[in-house]
From TrEMBL:
The keyword Transferase applies. Keywords: ATP-binding, Coenzyme A biosynthesis, Cytoplasm, Kinase, Nucleotide-binding, Transferase. It comes from Shewanella phaeophyticola. This is Dephospho-CoA kinase. PROSITE patterns: DPCK. ATP binds at residues 15-20. Its main location: cytoplasm. Its EC number is 2.7.1.24. It is found in: Cytoplasm. The lineage of its organism: Bacteria, Pseudomonadati, Pseudomonadota, Gammaproteobacteria, Alteromonadales. GO terms for molecular function: dephospho-CoA kinase activity. The keyword Chaperone does not apply. It catalyses: 3'-dephospho-CoA + ATP = ADP + CoA + H(+). Pathway: Cofactor biosynthesis; coenzyme A biosynthesis; CoA from (R)-pantothenate: step 5/5.
Amino acid sequence: MTLAKFVVGLTGGIASGKTTVANLFAEFGIELVDADVIAREVVAIGSAGLTAIVEHFGDKILLADGQLDRAALRNQVFNNETQRLWLNNLLHPMIRQKMLDQVQASASQYVIMVVPLLFENHLDSLVTTTLVVDISPELQISRTMQRDGVSRQQVEHILASQMSRQQRLDKAEHIIDNQGDINLLRSQVTRLHQLFLQQAAELTIKPND
């Protein structure tokens, strides 16, 4: 599906600062479509996603209050490729459609689509351009350990499961360096905001040429 809107696919590795960068764009009035938020919504109580998961796995993947027990669900699909594929085939189309619906309903000049696994899940096909928030692996490790209270080994395991830094940079059309202070970050976002405004305006003019 080709969107008639200018969409920036924002991604980056763990603890790279995707949320901080997205919020800086939001300060300019740019609407955000967040894949992580939508992923929680499609399995909320009363959703078709949660109903299908319960029918497949049973009530054992529910918490006492009826919400999805994410830890129990992870245990069901961990090291079980068949179950993992079943879950992905259920949820990924739902998440994708909801993201597209939110983009189409947006009113800002362009839209930021925040997707941690933008390239891994081939969701870059939905966006006009891609923006990677980049930091060094060492900084990723220290920030994640501090933020999540996990060991270095756990963080290194997560990094090993994600696309490598170089692969991500090779695919990026735009890159933000988030290894400095907030003022440096803000100046980069401001520059890109002006560029995206210009490109979005050009996109809306083209159909009438």
